[in-house]
Amino acid sequence: MQHGGRESVIQGEDEWIIQFDIINKEGEESSYIINWSTGRETYTERVSIKDGGIFTYIHHVYPQTVKEGKVNLAIYKEGEPTPFEQATYYIRFD
Which of 37, 41, 73, 94 has a Cα-to-Cα distance from 82 of 20 to 30 A? Predict the structure, then answer.
């Protein structure tokens, strides 16, 4: 993650847990938009982080919400048209 510290992808008994940090290095309080898509559901969350602050984001992914084994993530600084971070997580449920 460009603005992040740690990132973890953890397989639970009946879910995957994706966790990452967003670190605000903008020099002022900033807001970020976090978009998730699982192929069946889309989530959008807005967070505001003080300058130098860290926000730990945790997202739970369940089998019934994932269409093709992919979870897409895009993080935008509010007001920016292009995400500063994008990722695709490929997950399996056995």
Answer: 41
| CA dist., res. 86 & res. 60, Å (int) | 18
Is the residue at 74 inside a domain?
yes
Q: Residue 87 is encoded by which pair of tokens?
A: 């990722």
Domain contains 30: yes
Q: How far are the Cα atoms of 16, 64, 65, 75 from residue 3, in angstroms, in the given order?
A: 23, 31, 27, 10
Residue 77 tokens read as 């600084």
Interatomic CA distance for residues 33 and 76, integer angstroms: 5
Cβ burial of 32 (10 Å; 0-12, 13-18, 19+) is buried
Please report where in the chains the tokens 């602050």 appear, as a residue: 53
What does the pLDDT look like over 41-61, one tens digit per residue? 899 999 999 999 999 999 999
